[in-house]
Design a protein that fits this description.
single chain; 386 residues; alpha+beta; Globin-like; Heat Shock Protein 90; 3 domains; five-stranded mixed beta sheet; two-stranded antiparallel ribbon; 13 helices
Length: 386
């Protein structure tokens, strides 16, 4: 902390100035917080990490306390550690690092304006404005440094995990695929032979057993495919593609299957845009989200799935798949994109991990949210073509 203070020229006089101006700026804290969240909620990427109004209320209280802490006059190692927790929390909730720069600028401008309005001359002492800049620089440096440490550690762990999975999958594909195919062939032979058994009771028993084995082999094959897809999702070969046609291909492909299960499927495609993306990978992402929604509404009365595609501003495109199923718990929603996290008895827990990996490679973000009225909203956004 001391080294950081020395670097920006933060000394005892700066600390005294902040402590002295604190009471005059305090009445403006609520306004600064309001301006901060107005800026946050305008941006879809930043807004995506805010799960509910209750969470925003809690974060507003935390931001007010943070503002109070700027002017208490104590800037030691314990101060550094308290502020460092904020950067770590940003990593935990999935807020991208770039948002910290613009967020701190909103705070900085708000503090300068508050100082000017609280001053008799309508501007305030020049050295007081310098003190505000210095403490904001220190705060930003602390958050970015702790964010970098946590982010790099997390990304390194993810990369190592994917590298290990890639090596394991290469061996798994070789060692399992061949005997798996052989088992399927032998099972088909057994099923054909069973059809000629004269004893109806015995034939039905054999059929039930072979059906059970067939289902398990199919599940193992799906698991192997998921491993392969996750391991392969490491590089991209993007091309220019149209967002509208990409979504329509997936919707029209899945519609007959979904509606045959009595599920109402609707698609709201609001405009289109040009993407620089890998078409098949994005179609896989959308398919994974739709498959999750189909499984979520199975057995529900009046099951519905809604697909919404829209352009967010000038530089982002978003897809959301909304179902009226039971909804995902907050605990699962927070960890849903991690590998092997699932609520399904026969699930692999890799579907959303694959979604996240592909979306990350496209420079976007994926979000899973439980809706207040019930159901789940699974969405992702990626940048549009420049």
């Amino acid at each position: 902390m001391q080294r950081l203070c020395d670097y920006v020229g933060f000394d005892a006089e700066t600390a005294w100035r902040l402590q002295t101006m604190g009471p005059g700026i305090r009445p403006f804290h609520e306004r600064i917080v309001d301006e901060f969240y107005q800026a946050v909620l305008v941006d879809p990427g930043a807004r995506a990490v805010l799960k509910s109004a209750a969470q925003i209320d809690r974060m507003r209280i935390s931001l007010l306390k943070w503002l109070e802490g700027l002017f208490l006059g104590r800037y030691d190692e314990s101060y550094y550690e308290r502020r460092a927790r904020i950067g770590r929390m940003h990593v935990k909730v999935g807020l991208e690092q770039r948002y910290m720069l613009t967020a701190m600028n909103v705070i900085r401008v708000g503090l300068h304006r508050a100082l000017a309005e609280a001053s008799e001359d309508g501007f305030g002492a020049f050295q007081d404005h310098i003190a505000i800049d210095k403490i904001c620089d220190i705060e930003l440096a602390i958050m970015l440094e702790t964010y970098r440490e946590d982010y790099v550690l997390r990304k390194t762990a993810e990369s190592e995990s994917l590298a290990i999975m890639g090596r394991l999958t290469a061996g798994l594909a070789h060692e399992v695929r061949n005997p798996l195919n052989a088992a399927k062939l032998q099972l088909d032979v057994l099923r054909r032979n069973a059809a000629s058994v004269g004893d109806d009771s015995l034939r039905r028993k054999i059929e039930r057993r072979t059906n059970l084995v067939q289902d398990e082999l199919r599940r193992l094959s799906f698991l192997l495919d998921d491993f392969l897809n996750l391991a392969r999702a490491r590089t991209l070969e993007p091309v220019d593609c149209d967002a509208f046609s990409l979504v329509m291909e997936v919707v029209e492909l899945r519609r007959p299957e979904i509606e045959s299960q009595g599920i109402e499927l609707s698609a709201e495609l609001e405009g289109s845009c040009l993407l620089f993306a890998e078409r098949d990978r994005l179609k896989q992402v959308i398919n994974n989200l739709i498959t999750n929604a189909v499984e979520a509404v199975a057995g529900r009365r009046g099951p519905t799935i809604q697909i919404i595609s829209k352009v967010l501003g000038e530089d982002r495109w978003e897809i959301a798949v909304i179902d009226n199923g039971p909804g995902v718990s907050p605990e699962i929603a927070e960890r849903a994109f991690e590998s092997f996290v699932t609520t399904k008895d026969a699930g692999t827990g890799l579907g959303l991990a694959i979604v996240k990996r592909i979306v990350d490679l496209h420079g976007g973000a994926a979000v899973l949210t439980r809706l207040p009225e019930g159901g789940t909203r699974a969405s992702f956004w990626i940048p549009t073509r420049d």
